[in-house]
Write a structure and sequence with these properties.
homodimer; alpha/beta; Quinone Oxidoreductase, Chain A, domain 1; Rossmann fold; 7-stranded mixed sheet; 6-stranded parallel sheet; 10 helices; globular
């Protein structure tokens, strides 16, 4: 492929339930010339995140839905191929939000330069990118954990969950999670330093397992999944507990609204505070957060795990791994050569 | 009745749905002698509040349930008849928490002396008592309204709701409420200074009426009722809105858990913060709050409305008015002579 053509994946039709191949279309399009202030970038890595599923729905959300025929949104790590802006030069590595396409011409102002010496450049999509910042801001600014408290996080081995758990541990909290395989549970316990982690698929009575793992109750719930796990956690929250609502992945492919008992009364009983969080609300604190996360990685207090899928055209199939429980760690698609690798 | 006998109403059986006369028992019991540090008090006024219904259930709540055979809980305004504590003298007017009984012997330390010159002594059960303090702390410390924002309050003509609306107006907010009769709506609009008030029983499409009344959306919801009204309000909350959960009266007599759509996702879309509130958490600020409320009443910026039902034995029947919509303003039972009245 020449660098005047971009391969892109667009939304052919809106998924009903789990996305199917026919919901996506792959095509090659001519790129425009690079104008003043713009750069041509080549995608090296593309991230796959659960929030993208919500944007495929034609429903009100925190952002406009992807239009039919529009490129699937998302961040990339890309290399500058041609620049008509003094701030960037060919060979620079940048983070973009151009979505599922192999190349793009974009204003230089829309890009964030990445320092490849700080950490592997894939981390700009994971622990040092949106998922890591979501964990950092969401736990520390919405969850407000205090040393000695019990923090619970669902989807605990995921890109967000594992970071939440490790930050909570660094802050002196007792950390309990849940995940969907013994391998993921072992990762949380042995590699991330969780105090307890429940395999919710094999534990039997989840409420009983949760009560045993959180014998002092739960002070902070970092909510990633929604559904029955969320409700069990909510009933075991301590007085004045905080619940940071980051995601409700169990519902993202639901075709009917899930009906649950009205539990507003419980908010009073325990004086619970529940707050939705969106990482972009905290953008002014991103640089400081990224620096602190990088320092924890540098001194060995924080680890991360990534799963790299090869081949741009595999993005739609790989995407569903996020909802089927078969993905482990930050899911990334390798689209083009990584110049930072020997 | 001599003052060595107390007439009391106890819980004979737990109500299923709306309480019935047979759930209560009225009896006369001998009082103990007054020991050192104690006083004998005579009930002048008894308050009836919705929260008492929750305490008749054998379910976990923020306080222990009333045991079978136990006196129904609640505050009274009482007169000291005999005192064996230097802090109180016969004739003093006090607020107690002795519940539904005509007389009681209690430690002086459990009583709060009321200044009859500050305001009518009934206000110690209403605008200057638990309901007024709930409105004050709940709106200002949990709802956190800013001048120019839209505040919505359900059960708007009630003891809590009308106070919430007037405080919001004093703080420069646009105030919208809902109530269940044209008379209550007129009270909110004409007497309490609400900007809009919806009769939810006659308005037809409540969501549409709410959208029209709150054309800039809702920034603070002071939740008193739960159920369908609460959900309609939640869907019209603005980004970063706050919801202070004070009560869910629509559910208090429900015999099955009401099932509602799981709307945790909506917390993220609008970054809503929902927090349960209990007035006793703010006790250290009660004196300052009561002084400010009294000053607003004094300078005419705040009004209140009370409904007095005569006769101790009528308390159980009067209690149900709280749930049937037939009560208007703070519901109080007159039990004995009010010495502050000509």
């Amino acid at each position: 492929m020449t660098e005047t053509v971009s391969r892109r994946i667009t939304l052919a039709s809106r998924p009903h339930g789990l996305p199917k191949p026919e919901n996506f279309q792959i095509s090659d399009v001519e790129l425009p010339r690079v104008a003043d202030g713009e750069v041509l970038i080549r995608t090296i890595y593309l991230t796959l995140d659960p929030y993208m599923r919500g944007m495929m729905e034609d429903a009100e959300s925190y952002d406009d839905p992807i239009p039919l025929g529009g490129v699937i949104v998302g961040s990339t790590v890309s290399e500058v191929v041609e620049s008509r802006d003094p701030s960037l030069a060919p060979g620079d590595i940048v983070e973009s939000y151009v979505g599922w396409q192999s190349h793009a011409v974009v204003p230089a102002a829309h890009l964030r330069r990445i320092d490849p010496n700080l950490a592997p450049i894939t981390t700009a999509l994971g622990v040092l990118g949106m998922p890591g910042l979501t964990a950092y801001h969401g736990l520390l600014k919405v969850g407000l954990p205090r040393s000695g408290e019990t923090v619970f996080v669902s989807a605990a081995s995921g890109a967000v969950g594992a970071t939440v758990g490790q930050i909570a541990r660094i802050k002196g909290c007792r950390v309990v999670g849940c995940a969907g395989s013994d391998e993921k549970v072992a990762y949380c316990l042995d590699d991330c330093g969780f105090d307890a982690c429940i395999n919710y698929k094999t534990c039997g009575d989840f409420e009983a397992a949760l009560r045993e793992a959180c014998s002092d109750g739960i002070d902070v719930n970092f909510e990633n999944v929604g559904g029955p796990i969320s409700r069990a956690v909510m009933m075991q929250l301590n007085e004045h507990a905080r619940m940071a609502v980051c995601g409700t992945i169990s519902n993202y492919n639901a075709t009917d609204a899930e009906m649950v008992p009205d539990n507003l009364w419980w908010f009073i009983v325990r004086r619970i505070r529940v707050e939705g969080l969106l990482v972009t609300d905290f953008a002014e604190h991103d640089e400081a957060a990224r620096a602190e996360l990088a320092s924890w990685i540098e001194d060995g207090r924080m680890i991360y795990r990534e799963t790299i899928v090869d081949g741009f055209d595999n993005a739609p199939v790989a995407f569903n791994r996020l909802f089927e429980g078969s993905n482990f760690g930050k899911l990334i698609v390798a689209v083009g050569d990584d110049p930072t690798k020997g």
